[in-house]
Write a structure and sequence with these properties.
Elements: E1 10-11, E2 14-22, E3 26-33, E4 36-40, E5 61-63, H1 69-72, H2 75-81, E6 87-90, H3 91-96, E7 132-135, E8 141-144, E9 147-153, E10 161-167, E11 180-184, H4 201-204, E12 211-215, H5 226-242, E13 246-251, H6 256-266, E14 276-279, H7 281-292, H8 299-307, E15 319-322, H9 325-328, E16 337-341, H10 347-350, E17 357-362, E18 369-370, E19 376-377, E20 409-413, H11 421-431, E21 435-439, H12 443-450, H13 453-456, E22 460-462, E23 469-471, E24 474-475, E25 491-495, E26 498-502, H14 512-516, E27 522-527, E28 530-535, H15 538-541, H16 546-551, E29 568-569, E30 572-573, H17 597-603
Parallel strand pairs: 4-5, 5-6, 6-7, 11-12, 12-21, 13-16, 13-17, 14-15, 14-16, 17-20, 21-22
Antiparallel strand pairs: 1-24, 2-3, 2-23, 3-4, 8-9, 9-10, 10-11, 18-19, 25-26, 27-28, 29-30
């Protein structure tokens, strides 16, 4: 990928040391650019690794991508340990950061004193020191000689930032030095949410940084369209309410909770409906914080807020209200929706009538999951892997039959706040870096991304381990492979009962053409409004087709396979009772808790 050392010397001015690469432990990376050290985020739950020298800060400066806890919860302790260490973020992030420390005053103090007359259970933002400095968008800021940064919106959350760092070594003579660039995405999302616009991909196209550090939260999974995700969730909530069930939605303080509220207020299933939506705990604090950053929200949101309250409104149905302790005891009187902290004890809401509640938990593969009580449990994330055409969350899983009678029904839903696999590779191909460093994901998911042929054939791909140092040598002339053709223009001809599609000869130059044209037969299917063509290889022609299985007797053992199970989606098992749960399985696999998909479909008619 690079020229020889004699004609093109390799420069090792850039290194990356990973202190944390997963959401549960927190994201924290130390980027070394020549003599400078830049700490990218500090969401560590245990940041003792940064305190090896109590007199020396671990970096020259800190950049915080956004205000979620897994990227920011260690910033305040870091500031308390090293008050002179500068910390920078976008203006909105500086306003949202205090939500990470909604705790009694006594736990947050070094250079300030708590008010004596505040109760032990009080939660307040006022005692926090203003330790984070705001930086403007799209304006290069020079921190030191030869080191500057430029901020771009990253989507995902209001104020979320992608950083473009530029390092130019100081030359001993008057000759200009080569500049090195690093692009760090933090958490990013290309699609528009209801309260935040997506990352501006058009603006970033062709940036060509030397190093791209980005998240790989969902591995190679492929998600349905955002509107489809919203509709699936709204339909599930609508069915539950029709069945006289209340809905409990545990979420993070900021981000998903506010997106859910906007969805519930504007979706046609709920507009004008006599329904109460209660917001409790830090999620309510997050809603209040969003009202303070209104000028930074999308124009459509600001226009909406001119006509009615963004969140708190008891006049317009459905009604959105703060949940008080007194009202908590009356929740079982009629179906309602409750949004609360994902870390709280959920049983306080459904204890009186557990069977009258449905708990809907967001599917987040980079986190450990919670059971119905709110306690975290381990996922199979070290062994489970996503394939490029997997879509494990495209349908809502059925309630687990193993759920105890004293617990509510628990299901998961997908309302993604991070890019899926195709979105991740889309960003990489548009930026076209030399090095790609994947963080923020389970090792298996990141390995899936790193193993994609379209990536490791074009870029130097890295998946750092905690405590591991990744050297990022930069060649002066990196042989960048031309971006692949995105599409081919052809002609479509209708003649009586035949349809002919003619494609240009250039398509045959792609090595994948031989696989598609292996037998000369293709399969066509509709995917939304698009027609997808797929070549039929010989191995598929030599095995029984799915149609043949449909003709077989319903009691045949061949019927009781994973491919015919209602829990089989995206090449994975999603039956919580199965020993294969969350594992990739073949369609002809088998487990003792098989449930036929055909019976499920007939039951829904």
């Amino acid at each position: 990928m690079t020229a020889s050392a004699e004609s093109d010397p390799i420069v090792s001015e850039l290194e990356c040391l990973a202190y944390g690469t997963e959401a549960d432990e927190g994201i924290c990376l130390l980027l070394k650019l020549g003599t400078y050290r830049v700490l990218l985020d500090c969401g560590l739950t245990d940041f003792s690794a940064l305190l090896t020298d109590a007199t020396m800060p671990p970096a020259d400066l800190v950049l915080c991508s956004h205000a979620h806890a897994d990227h920011a919860r260690g910033l305040l302790p870091l500031h308390q340990a090293f008050p002179q260490l500068p910390i920078y973020a976008s203006e909105v992030t500086t306003q949202l950061l205090p939500l990470n420390w909604l705790e009694p005053h006594s736990v947050v103090a070094t250079d300030f004193e708590a008010d004596d007359d505040v109760g032990d259970d009080a939660r307040s933002l006022t005692p926090l020191p203003f330790f984070c400095h705001a930086l403007p968008w799209r304006t290069p800021i020079e921190f030191f000689d030869g080191l500057s940064v430029e901020l771009y919106p990253a989507g995902h959350l209001p104020g979320a930032t992608a950083f473009l760092l530029t390092y130019t070594p100081l030359s001993d003579d008057d000759r200009p030095s080569r500049s090195y660039t690093v692009f760090y995405t933090g958490d990013f999302f290309l699609s528009n949410g209801r309260l935040v616009e997506g990352m501006p991909l058009e603006e970033l196209r062709g940036t060509a940084p030397d190093v791209l550090i980005l998240e790989g939260s969902y591995g190679t999974a492929r998600h349905p369209h955002r509107r489809q995700q919203e509709n699936q969730l709204a339909e599930r909530i609508d069915r539950a309410i029709a069945d006289k069930q209340s809905i409990l939605l545990p979420t993070s303080t900021i981000g998903l909770g506010q997106e859910l509220l906007m969805l519930l207020r504007s979706h046609h299933h709920f507009t004008g409906r006599d329904l109460d939506i209660w917001v409790d705990g830090s999620v309510a604090e997050g809603c209040d914080a969003y009202l303070e950053i209104m000028p930074h929200l999308p124009t459509a949101v600001q226009n909406f807020a001119r006509h009615q309250s963004l969140f708190w409104d008891e006049r317009v149905r459905p009604r959105v209200r703060h949940l008080t302790p007194d009202q908590r005891f009356n929740l079982d009187q009629r179906p309602s929706i409750v949004l609360t902290d994902e870390a709280t004890d959920l049983s306080q809401y459904y204890a009186a009538k557990p069977d009258a509640w449905l708990v809907l938990q967001a599917e987040q593969p980079h986190y450990k999951r919670r059971d119905g009580s709110g306690e975290r449990r381990e996922e199979h994330k070290d062994t489970a892997e996503f394939s490029s055409n997997a879509n494990p969350q495209s349908e809502l899983p059925h309630p687990s039959p193993l759920t105890p009678p004293s617990s509510p029904s628990v299901e998961t839903y997908l309302l993604a706040q991070h890019c899926d696999g195709p979105g991740t590779t889309q960003l990489i191909h548009n930026l076209r870096p030399q090095h790609v460093v994947f963080v923020h994901g389970s090792p298996a998911y990141l390995a899936d991304l790193a193993g994609l042929e379209e990536l490791h054939n074009r870029y130097h791909v890295h998946t750092p381990v905690i405590g591991g140092l990744v050297e990022l040598p930069i060649g002066e002339t990196f042989l960048r492979v031309a971006a692949p053709e995105a599409s081919y223009e052809g002609e479509l001809t209708e003649l009586n009962t035949l349809v002919t599609i003619t494609l240009p000869e250039a398509i045959m130059a792609d090595p994948r053409w031989q696989q598609l044209a292996d037998t000369g037969l293709v399969e066509a299917r509709w995917q939304g409004n698009e027609l997808v063509l797929r070549g039929l290889p010989q191995r598929e022609l030599l095995r029984p087709s799915d149609r043949l299985l449909d003709w077989m007797d319903a009691n045949s053992p061949l019927r009781n396979c994973c491919g015919n199970c209602r829990h089989y989606r995206g090449q994975r098992c999603w039956n919580q009772r199965s020993p294969l749960f969350e594992f990739k399985v073949t369609p002809d696999g088998f487990c003792p808790v098989f449930e036929p998909a055909q019976a499920s479909e007939e039951g829904n008619r």
